[in-house]
Amino acid sequence: MSEIVGNRIGIEVSRTAITSAVIDAAGSIIDTRSVTIAEGINVAEQLAAKATALQKEFAPVASLGLAVPGLVDRSTGRVAFSANVPAHSETDLISELKRATGLDAIFENDANAAAYGEYHLGAGRGSNNIFYATLGDGVGGALIFGGEIWRGISGFAGEFGYLTINSEGTRLEDVASSANIIRRTRSRFVQDSTSSLNKLSEEEIGLPEIIRAASNEDDFAQLMLERTGTYVGTGIASVINLLNVERIVIGGEIMEAKHLVLDAIVARARELSFHPAFDSTTIVEGELGRAAAALGAALLSSNSTD
Fold it and tell me: Coil, strand or helix: which one is 23?
């Protein structure tokens, strides 16, 4: 790899927000921030404006990386499929960034980028191989072997959310994404008259409200999060049994519930895993929070300078 001169910018575009990160040539984090995507304005325009503003503020900039949810076709630089943000498949985001900044931005799946960030800067440090799971708008996964992202033959490896967790064919994403946690909670909260969530209307119940209630010892909210962890732990057990990875890192907005979800993941994974494989695996919470994918994209962007 050639010597990096200048800062590196990473940007993640999710369904609702644009999150950015800036690291210097040595890999130290300079800045992270997030803004809500404005309605009624083209996302590509907002992305380009954000990138040019960062390029000016943190000049000189050596490279730029973009992370998005969905299946990324690296040969075309386009999103092949995105369940949560279908519009990304219709927009050439990379061309928009290049036009705005003059930089040849790299393009990466958000889970892959987050895994790369955690591997180098977060909870994966010191490992040779990791599996990363992200729990948020969707449920994603990524594999890193020997410091490199494992993409599979077509570049679509790691689709953790598509693992089936029962005989009816229910996929993990069907029950463990933030939207489905909210759906499950809204469908049952009126059945528990003691829950603090009963003070809210159904429309007011979102993931932050569920996590807040659980953190305040609300038994029903805790049950909803623990069940989510059990579902995820079922999938994690399959990863452990199949791959015997050294470390498993769990990230995404749902992990703001911390031990309420993580403890259930570990307990279920222990129950269903081949014990020698479980005993050689460490399951931990991600350290980079919502900036993980942006930081990973910034790190990966330097590959385009080789």
Answer: strand
- The Cα 131–Cα 143 span in angstroms is 5
Assess whether pLDDT exceeds 90 at residue 14.
no
* Helix H or strand E encompassing 39: none
Helix 178-186 to helix 219-243 angle (10° resolution) is: 140
Q: Is residue 82's pLDDT more than 70?
A: no
The domain over range 7-116+291-305 is classified in CATH as 3.30.420.40: yes
Exposure string of 274-300, with b = 16+ CB inside 10 Å and e = fewer, is eeebbeebebbbbebbbbbbbbbbbbb
Domain with CATH 3.30.420.40 in the chain: 7-116+291-305, 126-286
Tokens of 18: 């644009």
Residue 76 has pLDDT above 70, yes or no: no
Q: Tell me which CATH code domain 126-286 carries.
A: 3.30.420.40
Give the residues across from 139 on adjacent strands: 135
**pLDDT value of position 153:** 87
Among residues 287, 264, 272, the alpha carbon closest in space to that of 240 is found at 272
pTM confidence score: 0.91
Residue pLDDT, tens place only, 164-192: 998 999 999 999 999 999 999 999 888 88
